[in-house]
Amino acid sequence: MTAREWRPMGCITAASLVLGAITVTATIRLNRAPAEAHAIPAAATEDYGRRLLAQTPEYLGPDVADPKMRYISSRLSCGSCHLGAGAEPGTLSLPESIHHYPRFSPRYGANTSIEDRVNECMQRSMNGRPLPKNSVEMIAITAYIKSLGDQDAASAPARRKVDEPSGFKTPNRAADLAAGKRILEEKCAACHQKDGSGLLAAANPIHGYVFPPLWGQDSFNTGAGMHRILTAAKFIKARMPLGKPDLTNDEAFDVAGYLNSMPRPEMANLQADYPDRKTKPIDNAYGPFADPFPLSQHQFGPFAPIEAFYKVKPAAK
């Protein structure tokens, strides 16, 4: 919407016009998401946003024909973690996410938008580069996420019911990586393979994976949230094995430790994350830290001593 030029028409009329223009403009600004500040491209549909989440490598992966559209280096889909293209209720579901932004991010030490959060996933979970905030793809993704929020708000409580086991509780010990390897081979390998390489959807890798790789070049990088053992264990306990999640807390903890001990792409400049190191999650898999505990303990536990340190420390100041 563009402002119209006007000429002086008397003090009262002019003042009324200015006040009206300010009110309309303020209302528009308050109700627009950052990506909607300009005219929305016709191609930036909610359906395109859904397809971008469900079939990410086909549109943004390393095998697409147009080099400018190769935004991710992995062949994961956003739906690898956000099940049902983010629409399935439960852990890592997306319908409520639009309402959480803008918000302060300890990782960056600044306020962030939903577009910033999408790009965090692009750079970390997808091991890629950020989408331009005014791109058709970013606008479509955020429009789709907003549509999920709108549908969720309008749906009956029964449709929002979460069908998951009880929440993950952290064992009071370090992860047993050997046990995690056994659990993966017994309960996860049917889908993700014993070597964690996943199962491609087709011979052409542009179509991505039916079951995603758990480590290796096509998996998430070292800066991803899933590279934190407690985040991974929470997801595994809630969702895995797919369709019949039945792992115990100890099994989820150990298999999360094992898969996160395996090689994966390295993200650069991680030392710049969390300017206030006291806000860094206790299971962050990279330093530096504001506490005396070794990196290995932050990666695999036990976490109770680290939690106790941060609970006591502020009171001692």
What is the strand content?
under 5%
Supply the helix-strand structural class: mainly alpha
- Overall geometry comes to globular
Number of domains in the coordinates?
2
Radius of gyration, CA atoms, in whole angstroms:
23 Å
Q: Strand tally, please?
A: 4
Largest sheet: 2 strands, antiparallel
What is the ordering of alpha helices and beta strands?
HHHEEHHHEEHHHH
Unreliable sequence segments = 1-37
- What proportion of the residues is helical, as a percent range? 25-40%
By oligomeric state, this entry counts as: single chain
Tally of helical segments: 10
- End-to-end distance: 53 Å
The CATH superfamily of the largest domain is identified as Cytochrome c-like domain
CATH class of the largest domain: Mainly Alpha
What's the gist of this structure?
This protein is mainly alpha-helical and 317 residues long. Helices cover 37% and strands 3% of the residues.
Secondary-structure blueprint of this entry?
Elements: H1 11-31, H2 46-54, H3 56-60, E1 103-105, E2 110-112, H4 114-123, H5 136-154, H6 177-192, E3 199-200, E4 209-211, H7 229-239, H8 249-259, H9 295-300, H10 304-312
Antiparallel strand pairs: 1-2, 3-4
Structural write-up:
The chain is mainly alpha-helical and 317 residues long. The chain folds into 2 domains: 46-160, Cytochrome Bc1 Complex, Chain D, domain 2, CATH 1.10.760.10; 164-317, Cytochrome c-like domain (Cytochrome Bc1 Complex, Chain D, domain 2, Orthogonal Bundle). Helix content is 37%, strand content 3%. It is built from 10 helices and 4 strands, in the order H-H-H-E-E-H-H-H-E-E-H-H-H-H. The chain has helices at 11-31, 46-54, 56-60, 114-123, 136-154, 177-192, 229-239, 249-259, 295-300, 304-312; strands at residues 103-105, 110-112, 199-200, 209-211. Helix 6 packs across helix 8 (249-259) and helix 7 (229-239) packs across helix 8 (249-259). The N and C termini lie far apart (53 Å).
